[in-house]
């Protein structure tokens, strides 16, 4: 365990992530063992609690998390999600306190349809990601997938729009972040709503 992070801290974070996972799984956004969540526990050095690999996301317990460092490497016991490195990269890059990765049909479909980015305008729901509803055009970036988390992180860093706390990974799913798990959840639900709207329009 990291010097300033106790087993109790990690278990408390695990309880939060288990509840968030159950919510997303109930929407069909984390089917089976797919998807992963994280929450930042320390900034200096960077430490995150990340959902453990290979677990049904609708049935997580507070113990089903792993502490990782700024490179996504486990600190102590457990095997984190294979994408823990990208969670750490997003947290370091954006200052986010929590990161959500879900596999939604709308994000994959729209990523295929608009590989250059998905543009939203004149929608009240944009307020849910901190943007005005009118007289603004916001693009949700779409990046090519990779099994190499450093490559994927580089693509995310190059493509991200600071006005949109999310990015679509083509053929894969959606990454969203926020200041804490609650805001990350809200951002995820809003971005998914926007994607579903665009999908039905087309």
Automatic annotation (TrEMBL):
Q: Where does Zn(2+) bind?
A: 101, 103
Name the Gene3D superfamilies for this protein.
Class II aldolase/adducin N-terminal domain
Q: Which Pfam families match?
A: Aldolase_II
- Might you name a Gene Ontology BP term for this protein? L-methionine salvage from methylthioadenosine
**InterPro entries, sorted:** Aldolase_II/adducin_N, Aldolase_II/adducin_N_sf, MethylthioRu-1-P_deHdtase_MtnB
Q: Which reaction does it catalyse?
A: 5-(methylsulfanyl)-D-ribulose 1-phosphate = 5-methylsulfanyl-2,3-dioxopentyl phosphate + H2O
Q: Which Gene Ontology MF annotations are present?
A: methylthioribulose 1-phosphate dehydratase activity; zinc ion binding
Record text on cofactor binding: Binds 1 zinc ion per subunit.
Q: Where is the Class II aldolase/adducin N-terminal domain?
A: 15-199
Q: What pathway is it annotated to?
A: Amino-acid biosynthesis; L-methionine biosynthesis via salvage pathway; L-methionine from S-methyl-5-thio-alpha-D-ribose 1-phosphate: step 2/6
Q: Which UniProt keywords apply?
A: Amino-acid biosynthesis, Lyase, Metal-binding, Methionine biosynthesis, Zinc
Q: Which GO terms describe its cellular component?
A: cytoplasm
Question: Which EC number(s) does the record attach to this protein?
Answer: 4.2.1.109
What role is this protein assigned? Catalyzes the dehydration of methylthioribulose-1-phosphate (MTRu-1-P) into 2,3-diketo-5-methylthiopentyl-1-phosphate (DK-MTP-1-P).
- Please give the family membership noted in the entry: Belongs to the aldolase class II family. MtnB subfamily.
Record protein name field = Methylthioribulose-1-phosphate dehydratase
Lineage, broadest ranks: Bacteria, Bacillati, Actinomycetota, Actinomycetes, Kitasatosporales
């Amino acid at each position: 365990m990291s010097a300033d992070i106790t087993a109790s801290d990690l278990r408390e974070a695990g309880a939060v992530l288990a509840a968030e996972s159950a919510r997303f799984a109930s929407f069909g956004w984390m089917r089976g063992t797919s998807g992963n969540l994280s929450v930042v526990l320390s900034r200096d050095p960077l430490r995150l609690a990340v959902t453990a690999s290979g677990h049904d996301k609708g049935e997580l317990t507070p113990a089903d998390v792993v502490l990782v460092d700024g490179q996504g490497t486990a600190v102590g016991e457990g095997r984190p999600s294979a994408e823990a490195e990208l969670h750490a990269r997003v947290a370091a890059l954006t200052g986010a306190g929590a990161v959500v990765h879900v596999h939604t049909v709308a994000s994959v479909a729209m990523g295929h349809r608009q590989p250059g980015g998905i543009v939203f305008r004149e929608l009240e729901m944009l307020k849910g990601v901190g943007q005005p509803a009118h007289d603004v055009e916001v693009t949700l970036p779409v990046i090519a997938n990779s099994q190499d988390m450093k490559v994927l992180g580089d693509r995310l860093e190059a493509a991200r729009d600071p006005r949109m706390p999310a990015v679509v990974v083509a053929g894969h799913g959606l990454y969203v972040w926020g200041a804490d798990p609650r805001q990350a959840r809200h951002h995820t639900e809003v971005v998914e709503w926007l994607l579903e709207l665009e999908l039905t329009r087309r």
